[in-house]
């Protein structure tokens, strides 16, 4: 299984620097973030990727379907994924309507079933557009601690049920070790996801959880996750894509990105690769 | 449905003060914690409870089956639950072996399936002892953010599977809104838990999550949970016990416990009672 660098693992780098870093370290695949692509320029990013001969394993991200007026932005995300020939557009579906990450509660909805229905409806609306552009959508279940503010989609089983009405070539799922490691059904669900796995993302779950729960992600080997069973299960399910290392971590972001990428390669070989 | 005060909602109170508080506020049921019972004295606590005519809706807690040498302490917990005539002994099953709440990782196991097997084995060992003492054990699934350090039991479905080999009168489950609100299957599982629900605990899930994730619990109405569907589901499943309000919250712990109990009663009536 091939390593892909999600660029937020080396967040201090611009797209241009991350592409150069991948080339320098012999990494052949990269996961990009829309805001960084925008800062570099979409056409310039596509040109850099092409010149370097990199695969784009994912574009992060679309979704937030429970927010008002999300449709135009999601179409733009699809357009960008198409322009970058990304293997998938990752969708973080959004939390309870009106609940914003980091913001105090005010004027929000507690109706979780309704939020989930809204997600399913918005997905149905987006699929034909993505199909026309040749972009595969990838539903990402997030750890339940992000249910209120980021994703009312919490398990792989739930993601598969949401994807089920759609062609697997058009709507896949993301298997992210950080979000799913605790789930007693996760290996059964990975087997059930055969043909639907659009992205395999790896990073560790830190203990104790740091003050900003978004930054509870750690370098593989620094947390509590046993990666080998995940890699085996994803491969057994027929996944042929890259393993994308995506780590949001304050200490890694403060370190020299070249050191972080070298460490990523070493830890990937020791913990994740089969 | 009757309100029970879990004494850690008014944590500054001793057992004696909490019992008096319940009497003063017309609360007829209380959930006790072992360390506070020990500070008061077991026989003294039983006498106070008897004089006040309170029900003990639960004793918290036994479990931590993944730690070494847990057996003697769990038998002591059973004895205490019997002495207090508690409706159940709550079991928090423990996390990965060697992972301690709040402590850095060192010398621990990442083998989650093995930890779960260890829990099932230790439960089998404890059940006959509890049966002899007439104590009902109550398996509590905890929010997945506590999987590493407190409970490798994360969903109600998983708790029901763990309880399944045992008589429902001997091994039940805890339905705690804080831990389960995000689970897309929770209402189906509550229906499936008919006859197994030993305790219904309520408190809200705060947003944003505070620095100490253990204190992400909030007064009903202060967080993101819609309580009415939980109360309806628990009643529809045939639960006839109390609804125990258990809130770990730094602001509430700093407030006057009488004010907290008055607020608890008001919020319970507004959000939780059917």
Description of the structure:
The structure is a homodimer of 274-residue chains. Helix content of chain A is 41%, strand content 16%. Chain A is an alpha/beta fold. Chain A has a single domain (3-269), classed as Alpha-Beta Barrel (TIM Barrel), CATH 3.20.20. In chain A, the strands form two sheets. In chain A, strands 1-2-3-4-5-6-7-10 form an eight-stranded parallel barrel, surrounded by six helices. In chain A, strands 8-9 form a two-stranded antiparallel sheet. In chain A, strand 5 (137-139), helix 6 and strand 6 (171-176) form a beta-alpha-beta unit. Chain A is globular. The mean pLDDT of chain A is 97. The A-B interface holds A 96, 99, 101-105, 108, 110-112, 116, 143-145, 147-149, 154-155, 157-158, 181-184, 205, 207-209, 211, 213, 222-226 and B 96, 99, 101-105, 108, 110-112, 116, 143-145, 147-149, 152, 154-155, 157-158, 181-184, 205, 207-209, 211, 213, 222-226. Chains A, B: This is Sugar phosphate isomerase/epimerase. Chains A, B: InterPro entries: IolE/XylAMocC-like, Xyl_isomerase-like_sf, Xyl_isomerase-like_TIM-brl. Chains A, B: GO terms for molecular function: isomerase activity.
Short descriptors:
eight-stranded parallel barrel; homodimer; about 270 residues; about 40% helix; 11 helices; 10 strands; TIM Barrel
Oligomerization state of this entry? homodimer
Number of strands of chain A: 10
Roughly how many Å apart are the termini of chain A? 7 Å
- Write out the CATH superfamily name of chain A: Divalent-metal-dependent TIM barrel enzymes
Question: In which range does the helix fraction of chain A lie?
Answer: 40-55%
Name the structural class of chain A.
Answer: alpha/beta
Whole-number total of structural domains of chain A: 1
At CATH level 3, the topology of chain A is TIM Barrel
Overall pLDDT score of chain A: 97
Largest sheet of chain A: 8 strands, parallel, barrel
Order of helices and strands of chain A: EHEHHEHEHEHEHHEEEHEHH
CATH class of chain A: Alpha Beta
